Amino acid sequence: MNTELLGIYINDHLAGATAGSELARRISRTHPELRVLADDLEADRKELLDFMREVGVEARPHKAALGWLSEKAGRLKLNGRVLGRSPLSDVLEQEGLRVVIEAKAAMWRTLRTLRSFDEERLERLGRRAAEQAELVDAYRVRQVPKAFHSPQVSGVDVERTFTVASPPEGVVEYLRDFSRTEQWDPGTVSCSRLDDGPVGVGSRWRNVSMFLGRKTELVYELTRDEPTGLQFVGRNDTATATDDITVTAGATPGTARITYHAHLEFTGLAKLGAPVAKLALEKLGNDTEKSLVRVLGPVR
Hints:
Layout: H1 3-30, H2 35-55, H3 61-74, H4 87-113, H5 119-148, E1 156-164, H6 168-176, H7 181-184, E2 188-193, E3 204-211, E4 214-226, E5 229-235, E6 239-249, E7 256-266, H8 274-296
Antiparallel strand pairs: 1-7, 2-3, 3-4, 4-5, 5-6, 6-7
Helix pairs in contact: 1-2, 1-3, 1-4, 4-5
């Protein structure tokens, strides 16, 4: 057997496996239900490295690095949005992931035909790749209608997903009162309730924040109040801010997984400041995640 060609072949697939693992990990941040798939793909990548060591094929780091860079470069693809995440991103990323998995399955089949390696192991890995491809396809098909029927929007978006050491019901109860943003939103200067009675859909708050070095005042309204999440919409003359918060059970009892999605829509001349606002909103997203983890408890 030509071991040089075998080394080139497997290292090329290692680059693809690295790119696929990175892509799956990124997809799972916006689709937590695919986190198990991301873990499986990373496990497959490690098993490929083990296989390479066993058969005497040396891993070439520059190939793996190329795979990593390819995944990062793929984020720059045109998807109909310059600043925010497009609904098409889900479809394109999952199609790309399906291609990576199919290539991996083809590699296992190719290695089996050589009849020089553990066929039972290669058959098992091939079956797992087929199951992964089927899972991605089924999930992608469900995303297609949502993507192509989504409304045309503009503005900037930031999303963070993280886990805290508080139960989901406690997280929702805490975040429901928007006046508590003074405790967890680094940009909030003050936030006060504008109406009375129990907090529910329609409750309103006046929020004063520092953004881009200036004080900004918005009136926020609770527009969605469910056991699995909340939505607050704030408005003034130049912008509309929408905070979508989804809360699900964490991987361990007593923890909650929070997905925090902020969308900022500008009107009139304020739209010209969108690129700068995107950078500021990214930093604010990072700071907000740290503050919520601090207030609701870090997972040990």
